[in-house]
Write a structure and sequence with these properties.
mainly alpha
C-alpha cells in the first residue's frame, strides 16, 4: 500500500492515530482478507474464486450491523477449510513482520514513524518469538 501515499507516510500514520483522540470519532473497522492464500498441500487457492468475493464484502457489512457470525464461508459451492484459512505460522509472521523491515521500518519512514507504531511492531516481534 505504501506506493499509493502522496505524502510523508509517517505523517499519514500519525494522522490516523490522532483520530482516536477526537471526541465522537467514528473509526473504520479493519478486516484482514487474503484472497490469494494457497493450500500448503494442494497449492490451490483457499478462497474459491473471484465470483465469491462479493460474499465477503456482504458478510463484512452484515457483521458490522451485528447480523453475521465469524466466517463468510456459509453457502459456498466449494468447502473452505477454516483451519488452513485462518492459521498463520511463525515463519509467515516472521516474513510479514520482517523485523520491522517492511514499509514501517526506519529506512522507509525514517524518524517520522509514530512511537505508537514502533511500539506495536516491537510487541508483534515479541509475540512472534513466543509462538
Amino acid at each position: 500500500m505504501r506506493p499509493f501515499f502522496g505524502y510523508n507516510f509517517g505523517h499519514y500514520l500519525s494522522h490516523w492515530l490522532s483520530m482516536a483522540e477526537r471526541p465522537g470519532a467514528k473509526l473504520p473497522r479493519i478486516f484482514h482478507v487474503n484472497w490469494f492464500r494457497k493450500s500448503a498441500t494442494t497449492g490451490a487457492f483457499l478462497w474459491p474464486g473471484f465470483g465469491d468475493n462479493i460474499r465477503v464484502l456482504d458478510w463484512m457489512f452484515r457483521r458490522l450491523d451485528g447480523e453475521a457470525g465469524a466466517s463468510p464461508s456459509a453457502g459456498l459451492a466449494e468447502p473452505v477449510d477454516p483451519g488452513q484459512l485462518f492459521s498463520l505460522d511463525r515463519s509467515f509472521w516472521r516474513s510479514e513482520a520482517g523485523g520491522g523491515a517492511g514499509v514501517t521500518s526506519a529506512t522507509q519512514v525514517n524518524d517520522d514513524l509514530p512511537r505508537e507504531v514502533a511500539k506495536q511492531l516491537d510487541l508483534l516481534e515479541t509475540r512472534i518469538e513466543q509462538m
